[in-house]
Design goal:
Chain A is an all-alpha fold and 277 residues long. Chain A has helices at residues 7-33, 57-65, 68-99, 105-117, 124-133, 140-144, 151-163, 166-174, 179-208, 211-216, 225-238, 242-262, 264-274. Chain A folds into 2 domains: 2-55, no CATH class; 64-274, MetI-like fold (Orthogonal Bundle), CATH 1.10.3720.10. The mean pLDDT of chain A is 87. Chain B is mainly α and 310 residues long. Chain B has helices at residues 2-9, 12-23, 25-56, 71-78, 80-110, 116-130, 133-143, 150-157, 172-197, 201-209, 214-225, 227-243, 246-251, 263-273, 277-309; strands at residues 57-59, 65-67. In chain B, strands 1-2 form a two-stranded antiparallel sheet. Classes of the chains: A mainly alpha (277), B mainly alpha (310). Chains A and B meet through α1, α3, α4, α5 and α7 of A and α1, α2, α3, α5 and α6 of B.
């Protein structure tokens, strides 16, 4: 701390604190407003001072006005379903790019890279046609399908396999392991860090996804959390129920924020990999 | 080299299996790549052709599609909303990318020492990254509420009057820019933090011995050595400003009077609200062309960026 004794450093510290203070305010407000009694009067709604007896009324009302259990279920299904298929496609392709020699490898690789730029959101118009033709309109599978291949995941797994020495595989083969023993006993356990990193980034981005589900889903039965939150917010906004909006937002964001608080290091490492989803 | 190891192990069966494997590696690669390629073909490659087709045709009553030449592009370019969306996206890109990268860099440099206090502050700045953009938008409905909202409530204490953050066409886009900077700066900070860790400390030590001040050290050492990270973050940030419009849907729907309409929101609006797929497709074709050009310029950067952490 003695390093901060000079005035420039103190000024820098003050500026940093100011930025962090401003950054924390919206989420701090969410956490406080969600528990603020509704009859508190509208004028002090922005107050960040918790000078009240906390109540769960806002949560009760939020849970009443949207079918949160169903929204959670659909979102979890979308996240896990997407991830399950992705893990299969990206580990296979990642292994091929890391270990096998074949012609036009570089070219194929750049073909994969293309998906980092031409992300599914930009292709919503043509993809809607494809999804409809496949009979997947208004289904969770339709929400998931465009993400089943993941260029980012393939890179991440390629990098992961490159860090695993070939000796392990050779040794297993010498020991007479069958190919599935090789996969399940050697490759999958060694590649687990890469898979976890990819899993975190994938789940976060699909938990948060909005525009594509909004295009594909037409009935409330197939809505995900973000869509539910958007329509719920519009209703609550016209009634000026800010506490209820805070509670609803809290419900949508809480699982990821809690997971982050618990597994911070893992999250940060995954996101460093992520750059592009 | 593999053969060498196997020869040393001296197992002819393994050797045989290996060399057979080498000959058919293309087959095996095809097999392993097939699942990914099927989905890439269906949802990344095919859509490019599909959307060009959509852009060159138009649906008539009774949903027959007929050739329409460049008609959709002509209609698109004649649409003032499209021009406005394009211009807005440019302002939005500059307005979000410059401050969020500057703030991210400043935070990374300021919070790079691994103290408990710094770790706490980094967490605070990173939280918005995990929030769905829709949820951030829902929160900012209140932040931007004129008079009693979070922003006006505290600005009033500093003596400022009430502002119609989302309703004033001159301000609304800047409000969305503020939200985006808040949401993304923490994400970019992570990359800068990682980049900073790769800079050898003795460089700073040497500079200090030569009498370089804090600013001099930043300009002469930190900034040049963060160059690749900066390029990488720039590419991600560019992709983000083109592909994320959830907050526009929730907060402004492109209004008031198209002042917050962005390219992807325009596409969404044409397709999902006006059912004008021809125009939506034409706009998509132009966006795809833009992104492809960007890809060609930055594929190497992206690849390097993905590498440097691993």
């Amino acid at each position: 701390m003695t390093r901060h004794a000079n005035p420039t450093a103190l000024l820098a510290l003050a500026a940093l604190s100011a930025v962090v203070l401003v950054w924390s305010t919206p989420l701090l407000w969410m956490a406080i407003a969600a528990f603020r009694p509704q009859n508190f009067g509208g004028l002090d709604m922005a107050s960040l001072w918790p000078d009240f007896v906390p109540t769960l009324d806002n949560f009760a009302e939020a849970l009443d006005s949207a079918d949160f259990p169903l929204l959670y279920l659909n979102t979890v299904l979308v996240c896990l379903g997407t991830l399950a298929v992705q893990l299969t496609t990206v580990t296979l392709a990642g292994y091929a790019f890391a270990r096998l020699r074949f012609r036009a490898k570089e070219l194929v690789f750049y073909g994969f890279l293309l998906q980092l730029m031409l992300v599914p959101p930009i292709l919503i118009v043509p993809n809607l046609v494809t999804i409809t033709r496949l009979g997947l309109y208004d289904s969770l599978l339709g929400v998931m399908a465009p993400y089943f291949a993941s260029a980012f995941g393939v890179f991440l797994m390629r990098q992961t396999f490159r860090t695993i020495p070939k000796d392990f595989e050779e040794a297993a083969i010498v020991d007479g392991a069958t190919w599935w023993q090789l996969v399940w006993r050697v490759l999958v356990p060694l590649a687990r860090p890469g898979m976890v990193a990819f899993g975190i980034v994938s789940v976060v981005s699909h938990w948060n996804e909005f525009l594509w589900p909004l295009m594909v889903v037409s009935t409330p039965d197939n809505q995900t959390l973000t869509i539910g939150l958007a329509s719920f917010t519009m209703g609550a906004e016209s009634a000026s129920q800010w506490g209820v909006i805070a509670a609803g937002t809290f419900l949508v964001a809480a699982p990821l924020l809690a997971a982050f608080a618990l597994f911070q290091r893992q999250f940060v490492n995954s996101f460093l990999f992520s750059g592009v989803k | 080299m593999v053969a060498e190891i196997e020869a040393r192990v001296g197992l002819p069966t393994v050797l045989a299996r290996r060399s057979a494997g080498r000959r058919s590696q293309l087959g095996r690669a095809a097999l392993l790549l097939a699942p990914s390629l099927v989905f890439l073909a269906a949802f990344t490659y095919w859509p490019i052709g599909q959307v060009i087709g959509q852009a060159l045709t138009i649906e008539t009553f009774g949903s027959d599609t007929v050739g329409y030449g460049l008609g959709n592009f002509e209609r698109l370019l004649a649409d003032a909303s499209f021009g406005r969306a394009l211009l807005n996206n440019l302002v939005y890109a500059l307005g979000t990318i410059v401050p969020s990268i500057a703030i991210a860099l400043a935070l990374a440099v300021g919070l790079q020492d691994a103290t408990r206090f710094n770790a706490g502050l980094r967490t605070v700045v990173f939280f918005p990254v995990l929030l769905p953009l829709v949820a951030a938008a829902a929160l900012f409905l209140f932040v931007f509420l004129p008079g009693i909202g979070l922003l006006d409530y505290y600005l009033a204490r500093l003596g400022a009057g009430s502002t119609n953050w989302l309703g004033d066409p001159d301000i609304a886009l800047w409000s969305l820019i503020g939200l985006t900077v808040w949401k993304n700066a923490g994400y970019y900070m992570l990359f800068f933090l990682a980049g900073l860790q790769a800079i050898p400390l003795d460089l700073y030590e040497a500079a200090r011995l030569e009498g370089a001040g804090a600013w001099g050290r930043f300009r002469r050492i930190t900034l040049p050595l963060l160059g690749p990270t900066l390029a990488f973050v720039l590419v991600i940030a560019l992709v983000n400003v083109i592909t994320q419009v959830d907050h526009v849907v929730v907060l402004t729907k492109g209004g008031p009077s198209d002042s917050t309409n962005l390219l992807l929101f325009y596409i969404y609006q044409q397709a999902h609200e006006n059912y004008d797929y021809g125009k939506a497709a034409a706009a998509t074709v132009l966006s795809v062309a833009g992104l492809l050009a960007l890809s060609l310029l930055s594929l190497r950067t992206l690849e390097r960026g993905i590498h440097y952490e691993a």
